[in-house]
Amino acid sequence: MRVVDLKIEDVAFGGKGVAREQGKAVFVPYTIDGELVSAEVVREKKQFAEAELVEVKQGSPNRVAPQCPYFGRCGGCAYQHISYEHQLAIKWRQVRDALQRIGKLRDVPMRPIVSSPSHYAYRNRITVHAQDSVIGFFRRDSHQLIDIKRCPISREEVNRALAELREQKRVRDGHYTLRTTSEPRVFSQVNDDVAYALRNLIVDLIPPNQELLIDAYCGAGFFAKALRDKFERVIGIDWDRFAIAAARENAIAKETYIAGDVEDVEAAVSAAFASGDVQPRALGTSAATTIIVDPPATGLSAPVRQAIADLAPETLIYVSCNPPTLARDLGHLHEKFAIESVTTLDMFPQTAEIEVVAHLRAMPAK
Question: Active-site residue 218, yes or no?
Answer without folding.
Answer: no
